Amino acid sequence: MNDRLFIFDTTLRDGEQSPGASMTRDEKLRIARQLEKLGVDVIEAGFAAASPGDADAIRAIAETIQGSTVCSLARANERDIHAAGGAIKPASRGKGAGGRIHTFIATSPIHMEKKLRMQPDQVVEAAVKAVKLALEYTDDVEFSAEDAVRSDMDFLVLIVDEVIKAVAITLSVPDTVGFSFPALWGERMQQLIERVPNSGKVIWSTHCHNDLGMAVANSLAAVMNGARQVECTINGLGERAGNASLEEVVMAVRTRRDVFPCDSRIDATQIVPTSKLVSSITGYPVQPNKAIVGANAFAHESGIHQDGVLKHRETYEIMRAEDVGWHANRLTLGKLSGRNAFKTKLTELGIVLDSEEALNAAFARFKELADKKREIFDDDLQALVSDEGYAAEHERFKLVSMKVCSETGEIPRAQIAFTDDGTEKQASGTGSGPIDATFKALESVVESGADLLLYSVNAITSGTDAQGEVTVRLAQDGRVVNGQGADIDIVVASAKAYLHALNKLDSKRERAHPQAGVAV
Ligand code: KIV
Ligand code: ZN
């Protein structure tokens, strides 16, 4: 198995720690299904002890996913391990690829002293105890030495060996703060493997953050030096500057098989659809020049390059766009498509609507869209289902209708009808542009006082009749949420996104942060 590289996706856990990226249970399920299709080995579905909602989402994923191991994070304490064990239980019953508990504790002097307020021997004891307790739920236990990058090497060797003796089967070495660089990180991995007496009994894993822009390079250096699992996220989402991006790690290893002694089982043609789905659900747009999944990743602008590619593609292309799924956004349905064709297409896309009512509502939206837009693509359907999902899940505020006047030399004005817990309300306002007028109108009635941190709009498909997908990031009392809305009319999409963000602020979901608090 030494030539197999395991891909551990933590989009639903570390990725969810990006500001405002928190996802509902159904959104997580949709992403988990797509990750399974992509062929990831492990889906870290969340942190069960964070909140009952997180535990519920992990349980639902563990009940559904068959082709990937479903994992929950747990700090090295009894409460967290019991919560994680309970949440992954459906996956551990032997039907699918199983359930994993990923337990961790910080091992650096600064974390042990200032955050945990524990002595090193207490940390070792807690780690061993956590692994042993986790084994009561599953035999697939992973241990991470948080902040390994700033940990003393002798202490790391000691704690890791104790944990392996307690029978952890995957051993992860995280660069929690994104501090390392490739030569050092590769050396650290190599030394650990050399010095830990029982190192041959585990799969070594790497988990790198991107604070200095080197998460992917560091992960690859670890692989060159013996790591056989990479922890990564779609589009590089994650705490602060994010994690190593899955698509870059996977394609680097596959494209340079001459350099790497291993490969993953990822179906690369699912990379772009997965990236788009995650971007649309989390509201984190992908920058156009992002490797592999950015809109320009395969666009040749210079005449010399275009000429070269036309004569012989490999003059300027090291990968084929179609191999990473760039042409997977197929023309799907049109105005005359029926309910059955619509339902079949959703199933093909891995979208499961849990009731006839939800299917009917989505089909009605599809017909409306098909009236305005001649060609409906896979990405349109994903956005439409997301939009329906938001409306169904968080019902407090819902857009009914709106009128916006914008004319050269005049002050833009918006008039909006929306429902607040079923009661229709009218809002009107002016602003420096139509979007500003829309948000001011809504605020004049809702009075959330939230700060607008980010507004972004992206075309879902190409063409001037494309749907616009808007993200609105709001902050209120220290909470940050992203709201999304999609529509052919970007002002309408903006109003939907603003209301979606308000709905998220309204659902007071309290969650613990995995890296906060005392470990035992
Ligand atoms: O970055 C990190 O150290 C983590 C741990 C919880 C594994 O995410
Ligand atoms: Zn992390």
Brief overview:
The chain is an alpha/beta fold. It has helices spanning 25-38, 52-64, 78-92, 109-116, 120-134, 153-165, 182-195, 215-224, 246-255, 271-282, 303-311, 339-348, 356-372, 378-393, 434-446, 490-506; strands spanning 6-9, 42-47, 69-75, 99-106, 141-146, 170-175, 203-208, 229-232, 331-333, 376-377, 397-405, 413-420, 423-430, 451-459, 468-476, 479-487.
Would you write up a description of this structure?
This protein is of the alpha/beta class and 520 residues long. Helices cover 40% and strands 20% of the residues. It has 16 helices and 16 strands. The protein has an eight-stranded parallel barrel, surrounded by eight helices. Helix 6 links the parallel strand 5 and strand 6. Helix 10 runs parallel beside helix 14. It starts with 5 loop residues before the first strand and ends in a 14-residue tail after the last helix. The mean pLDDT is 92. The structure holds 3-methyl-2-oxobutanoic acid (KIV) and zinc ion (ZN). The site of 3-methyl-2-oxobutanoic acid has 10 residues, from strand 5.
Map the helices and strands.
Blueprint: E1 6-9, H1 25-38, E2 42-47, H2 52-64, E3 69-75, H3 78-92, E4 99-106, H4 109-116, H5 120-134, E5 141-146, H6 153-165, E6 170-175, H7 182-195, E7 203-208, H8 215-224, E8 229-232, H9 246-255, H10 271-282, H11 303-311, E9 331-333, H12 339-348, H13 356-372, E10 376-377, H14 378-393, E11 397-405, E12 413-420, E13 423-430, H15 434-446, E14 451-459, E15 468-476, E16 479-487, H16 490-506
Parallel strand pairs: 1-2, 1-8, 2-3, 3-4, 4-5, 5-6, 6-7, 7-8
Antiparallel strand pairs: 9-10, 11-12, 12-13, 14-15, 15-16
Helix pairs in contact: 1-2, 1-10, 2-3, 5-6, 7-8, 8-9, 10-14, 13-14, 15-16
Residues 14, 104, 144, 146, 174, 176, 207, 209, 514-515 line the site of 3-methyl-2-oxobutanoic acid.
